[in-house]
Amino acid sequence: MKKISLLVINDHPVVREGLTQVLDRFEELQVLSSGPSSYQVKELVQRLQPEILLMDIQSMASIYQMATEAQSIKPDLHIVLTSSLPLPEYQRIAERIGAKGLMSAFDDPEQMLAGLKSVSEGALFFHNNGIIRTLVQKHRDGINGRLEHPLSPREVDVLCCVAQAMTAKEIALDLQISVKTVDRHKANIMNKLNMRSQIELARYAIRNGFVEV
Questions:
Q1: Which end of the chain is less crowded, N or C, counting CB atoms within 10 A of the terminal residue's CB?
Q2: Fold of 130-207
């Protein structure tokens, strides 16, 4: 059986060692190294040539720079990010840098193994997706129920995303609709609110409590 080679990078010693010990017990995985610092990513990837880089999203170094450098050395490298908090913005960061997955550093080990195997097979794994969407939807539903406005529930979704400076592509991914549909919703929102720019929309959303700042 071919093992999945894994490089673990985390700036927090307790979390790093815990992840390494737990994952190294699975016969499907081969933990090549547990990097003591995010600043050593480039060197370790070059030397060890792992299949998957499991990296903390809250690393001291720039997550974007680390991902770019690591993939420049090994283009077929799969990056999976870990986080202690299931925040919506973390999934967007993961998608921007081309990461194949995002999971909690405190997930059940079996769930982490399942996610790493999925990534190794070419799939995406965002374990906290359902939790994130539930939290975001709960907030949006609250907005729909307590504020008077001319927008449809889906237009409120788009407005909330615009106020968070999300691009049309990011909004489409978040709401699972097409970019064209996003653009159409934006145009409808601007028409209903008599506004001309996304900056005006963001200000309106913040001023009227559609998003928290």
A1: N
A2: Rossmann fold (3.40.50)
pLDDT digits (tens, 9 = 90+) for 40-54: 888 999 999 999 999
176 conformational bin, left if phi > 0, alpha if psi -120 to 50, beta if neither: left
Q: Which of 201, 180, 183 is nearest to 192 (CA)?
A: 201
The angle subtended at Cα 160 by Cα 155 and Cα 166, nearest 5°, is: 110
- Mean pLDDT for the stretch of residues 196-205: 84
Residues spanned by CATH 3.40.50.2300 within the chain?
A: 4-127, 130-207
Q: How far apart are CA 210 and CA 202, in angstroms?
A: 9
Q: Which residues contact 169 (CB under 8 A, 6 or more apart)?
A: 179
Q: What is the arrangement of strands in the sheet containing 125-126, beginning at the earlier edge strand?
A: 29-35, 4-9, 52-56, 78-83, 101-104, 125-126
Measured at the CA of 148, the angle between CA 146 and CA 149, to 5 degrees, comes to 130
**Burial class of 27 by CB neighbour count within 10 A (0 to 12, 13 to 18, 19+):** exposed
Instruction: Give the domain 4-127 fold.
Output: Rossmann fold (3.40.50)
On whether the pTM is more than 0.85, the answer is no
